[in-house]
Amino acid sequence: MGASRADFTLDDALDAEIARAADRVRRAEHVVALTGAGLSVESGIPPFRGPGGLWTRYGEPPMDGYQRFLRDPKRAWEERLDPSAPWAKALGETLAAAKPNSAHRALAELERRGACAAVITQNVDDLHRQAGTRNLLEIHGNHTLLRCTECNARFATDELAVDPAALPPHCPACSGVVKDDTVHFGEPIPPDVLRGCFAAVEICDCMLVAGTSAMVYPAAEFPLEVVRRGGQLIEVNPEETELTASSTHSLRGPAGAVLGRLLHHVAATEAGA
Ligand SMILES: [Zn+2]
Fold first, then answer.
1. What's the pLDDT band for 24 if we cut at 50, 70, 90?
2. Of 33, 71, 108, 174, which residue is most buried, by most CB within 10 angstroms?
3. How much is the pLDDT for 170?
4. Residues annotated as catalytic (active site), given as ranges
């Protein structure tokens, strides 16, 4: 995986294909981007599974993490504040150090230019927000936020004081138990986010699928639904995926390089128009 990025060079054929994809983005009514782990990896965040993955190295978290939280939120909070699991420690340190890359920045800039209506991401790393994307749907939550398990209100860490002597924290609005926003194993996707995703997909006539093979529900549904509705897919991935056959453009390269170049072509066409 690292080798393919190091070896990557943007040749003329790929650049011409990126230019055609950029033209499609520019002409579409509602472009929605769907992103996944590939973008995080390019910011130095290791994937969970696969070679070099956090869980591969340190062992998987419990498959019933959410049920454990609900059974004993106090203990789950104590574990969050002082993680004993090595993968959780390693992930926390990596996330704290990670910075947005040119893929995150390109998507934020496309939004500013009115060329991207929404970003749906499977990543919890906050990097789309840090890059400036505003209409962001985080299917698996955001590791920097807290969420009420009753009313789904989100809180930044400076908005809700967590007192280690009075765990778990409670929601100021409805007094429900507050957990971290990251979706645990066994936890349903927050319904407000899921509704937002389906609303975005319903009007989407061009989906940019970057850094994900979108094999896992609910993300797997979105590109298929766009195709069913007659929309186009633009796939950005170094490898072929199950979506390749349904994609109008398959841009084979790392998301940072390809989306940076896509933005360049969108901007160049606008300037020339
Ligand atoms: Zn609440």
1. very high
2. 33
3. 97
4. 140
The CA 177 to ligand 1 mean position distance, Å, reads 7
The answer to whether the CB of 70 falls within 8 A of the CB of 184 is: no
Q: In this structure, what CATH number is given to the domain that contains residue 121?
A: 3.40.50.1220
Residue recorded with tokens 């926003």 = 181
> Is there a contact between 244 and 250 (Cβ–Cβ < 8 Å)?
yes
Task: Give a yes or no: residue 54 inside a domain.
Answer: no
- Residue 162 maps to a domain: no
201 alpha carbon – ligand 1 mean position (Å): 28
- Pair of tokens at residue 69: 């939280």
Could you list the residue range(s) of the whole structural domain that residue 120 is in? 1-45+100-144+181-273
- Tokens for 59, please give them: 């062992």
Joined together, the tokens standing for residue 224 give 């298929």
d(CA 220, CA 34): 10
Structural domain count, the chain: 1
List the structure tokens of 112: 């500013």
Of the candidates 92, 51, 28, which has an alpha carbon nearest to the alpha carbon of residue 232? 28
What value does the mean pLDDT take over residues 59-64? 82
Burial of 108 (0-12, 13-18, 19+ CB in 10 A): buried
How many angstroms separate the alpha carbon of residue 213 from the centre of ligand 1?
A: 34
Q: What is the pLDDT of residues 164-218, one digit of tens each?
A: 999 999 999 999 999 999 999 999 999 999 999 999 999 999 999 999 998 888 9
φ, ψ (nearest 5 deg) of residue 180: -70, 155
Q: What is the Å distance from ligand 1's center to 153 Cα?
A: 6
Decide if pLDDT at 1 tops 50. no
Q: Is residue 155 part of a domain?
A: no
Percent of the chain at pLDDT exceeding 90: 78
